[in-house]
Automatic annotation (TrEMBL), chain A:
Belongs to the CPA3 antiporters (TC 2.A.63) subunit C family. It holds the Pfam family Oxidored_q2. It is a multi-pass membrane protein. It comes from Pontibacter aydingkolensis. The chain crosses the membrane at residues 6-21, 28-46, 75-95. Keywords: Cell membrane, Membrane, Oxidoreductase, Transmembrane, Transmembrane helix. This is NADH-quinone oxidoreductase subunit K. PANTHER family: ANTIPORTER SUBUNIT MNHC2-RELATED. GO terms for molecular function: oxidoreductase activity. Its main location: membrane.
UniProtKB/TrEMBL annotation, chain B:
Residues 130-421 form the NADH:quinone oxidoreductase/Mrp antiporter transmembrane domain. It comes from the Bacteria. This is Na+/H+ antiporter subunit D. Belongs to the CPA3 antiporters (TC 2.A.63) subunit D family. The chain crosses the membrane at residues 6-25, 32-50, 70-97, 109-128, 134-152, 164-188, 208-231, 243-264, 276-295, 302-324, 330-351, 363-386, 406-430, 451-472. Keywords: Cell membrane, Membrane, Transmembrane, Transmembrane helix.
Length: 116, 499
């Protein structure tokens, strides 16, 4: 797992960037979601993965029993998932609205702002 | 270690105001009263905060009573207090403007709560002393920006919002990645603790450049540094002025604030390796921004491109990294927040009257509204940096700092860019105010009472700009004290971790 996950993170990052750069609106949604997943997975992997105990210190002890996994990256991850979820939800609604207004799936049709 | 409630109020006050506004969803007039009260109290509180920080040093509050490296700390130093005060002044002006000029339907669909939450996000970013919390506040700020830019769902707005959301989502992802790397390397998230670790003989100190790259890219996108700025002129001009003035005036400078904070506190130990990169980036940012502006024929787009160019000046102080240059950066940020907001407001007043932002369709404003023209002229000259207006002092400090440090090329670039800035301000002046009104434009000029009340927020901000120009000495001294505080990070570390 420890070798597989970094590779998977890399693949997720590259796929998501490819999708974001694509001009189809639905692929933009996919790209944003995958990018969020990739960052979350990165955060998880880089925080260090250990099998074993939890970081709760037993009564009478000063330090938790080794090996234990660090709870902070997991807490960060949970927060990041929630935030990412909110933003992705907003992005999906926005993209739907864009589609309704422009009647087009193609990002290349969205460059009216440049023509003044 | 008593809690300092003054540091929590800039977060609580807008939040409570926003919640009240949501309860008063259908009563826009009551919402207006709530927001007006919040803005006035906000200015008072940030003023008090500045006074307290100046007399008693760095203020720290540990949220929930958890001591520093474990809990989240709110920290206010002079830079924080100065920026919050400036933000609140600009906020009041933008509120007055949008109260008059913003259309009913946008107000009815939650403009005021979003505006307050945006201010809360700004306060959070400025106050927090924890690097993950910084990310969270940035997201609070961004989601409000997203919603505000898209509010109203006009075609141009949706288009701008889509670009803004996508690029900022990626920037936030990079930021989060950087935070993950930072935690993996040093096992800390508190900025003061991180600062202490990177100054110690920790095994991973040599790897500091790794999270540094992520932070520079992430905040570089948010602050619109070359070559990551393309989203800014594509989205900032889209929403109505009541929204874009605040976003353009304040939000992009918040990215610079975080860069100043993180580079002085954490990445300062490897500033020598980052310096050449920052110098090149700042030079290119100002040059490309101003050249981009020269090609535009829309009032707001010219101003948007100038934001990029001025971000370059702010980065220049950080890149030179001497006390004088950083003080110049801080002064320039304060000056630019006020002036840029004011210029956007002036463009809003013109558009309210003449129903257009296009330089081709506008004209003859000087003949019909000389007061408005002078309001624009003073702000524009201040932006270009003509003495004795406020922009001059900021640029003087930056140029002097650069010359003392021997960065002649960058100083030369910055002075050349000032000249081109003046040129494109003159272009707006010529096209909008000076040239005769185009004959084929038939639509009437709006001469209502409300058009005259719109001058009020512009006058209000202009008063501060003039004070900043004519009585620059106290503010320059404050910036210098603030730069000293930034460069002597041991006081920050001591205040957060040991007091």
């Amino acid at each position: 797992m420890e070798i597989l996950l970094p590779v998977l993170t890399g693949i997720l990052f590259s796929v998501s960037i490819y999708f974001i750069l694509h001009r189809h609106l639905f692929k933009l949604i996919l790209g944003l979601i995958l990018f969020g997943l990739a960052t979350n997975l990165f955060l998880f992997v880089v925080g260090g993965m250990k099998r074993g105990g939890i970081a709760i210190i037993a009564q009478g002890n000063e330090v938790p029993v080794e090996p234990y996994s660090d709870p902070v990256p997991q807490a960060l991850l949970l927060t990041a998932i929630v935030i990412g979820f909110g933003i992705q939800a907003f992005a999906i609604v926005l993209i739907r609205r864009v589609y309704q207004t422009f009647r087009s799936n193609n990002m290349d049709n969205l460059n009216n702002n440049e023509k003044i | 270690m008593s809690a300092n409630y003054l540091l929590i109020t800039p977060l609580m006050l807008p939040l409570l105001g926003a919640i009240t506004c949501v309860f008063l969803w259908r009563h826009v007039n009551l919402q207006t009263i709530v927001v007006a009260c919040v803005q006035l109290i906000f200015i008072g509180i940030t003023g008090l905060m500045l006074r307290q920080v100046l007399t008693e040093g760095i203020q720290v509050t540990h949220i929930g009573g958890w001591p520093a490296p474990y809990g989240i700390a709110l920290v206010a130093d002079i830079l924080t207090a100065l920026l919050l005060l400036t933000t609140s002044i600009a906020g009041l002006a933008v509120f007055m403007f949008s109260h008059i000029a913003l259309d009913k339907s946008r107000k009815r669909f939650g403009y005021f709560p979003l505006f307050l939450l945006l201010q809360m996000g700004v306060s959070g970013v400025c106050l927090t002393g924890d690097i993950f919390n910084l990310y969270v506040w940035f997201e609070v700020l961004l989601i409000c920006c997203f919603a505000l830019i898209a509010l109203g769902s006009k075609k141009s707005q949706l288009e701008g919002a889509l670009k803004y959301v996508t690029i900022n989502f990626i920037a936030s992802g990079l930021l989060l990645t950087g935070i993950g790397v930072m935690y993996a390397l040093y096992g800390a998230l508190n900025m003061a603790e991180l600062a202490q670790i990177v100054r110690s003989s920790h095994a991973n100190v040599k790897l500091l450049a790794l999270p540094g790259v992520f932070f520079l890219t992430g905040f570089g996108i948010k602050a619109a540094i070359f070559p990551l700025f393309f989203w800014l002129p594509a989205s900032y001009h889209a929403p109505p002025i009541g929204i874009s003035a605040f976003i353009a005036g304040i939000i992009s400078k918040i990215g610079i604030y975080t860069l100043l904070r993180l580079y002085s506190l954490i990445f300062s130990v490897e500033i020598n390796s980052a310096q050449p990169l920052l110098l090149i980036l700042s030079g290119l940012t100002m040059a490309i921004g101003v050249i981009g502006a020269a090609a535009q024929m829309d009032f707001r787009k010219i101003l948007s491109f100038h934001i990029i160019s001025q971000i370059g000046y702010m980065l220049m102080g950080l890149a030179i990294y001497t006390p004088l240059a950083i003080a110049g950066s801080i002064f320039f940020v304060i000056h630019n927040m006020l002036v840029k907001t004011n210029l956007f407001l002036v463009s809003g007043v013109v558009a309210h009257r003449y129903r257009s932002f296009s330089l081709v369709r506008l004209g003859g404003v000087y003949l019909m509204h000389p007061t408005l023209s002078f309001l624009f002229l003073i702000s524009a000259l201040s932006l270009a940096g003509l003495p004795p207006l406020s922009g001059f002092w900021g640029k003087l400090m930056l140029a002097k700092g650069g010359l003392e440090a021997g960065n002649y090329i960058l100083v030369g670039t910055s002075l050349g860019v000032s000249l081109i800035t003046l040129l494109s301000m003159t272009k707006i002046w010529n096209e909008v105010f000076w040239k005769p009104r185009p004959k084929r434009i038939k639509n009437s000029v709006r001469e209502t009472m409300s058009a005259y009340t719109l001058y009020f927020p512009v006058f209000f901000l202009l008063a501060f700009i003039l004070v900043l120009g004519f009585f620059a000495q106290p503010v320059i001294e404050l910036s210098q004290r603030s730069a000293d505080q930034l460069l002597h990070s041991e006081t920050y570390i001591k205040a957060v971790l040991y007091d």
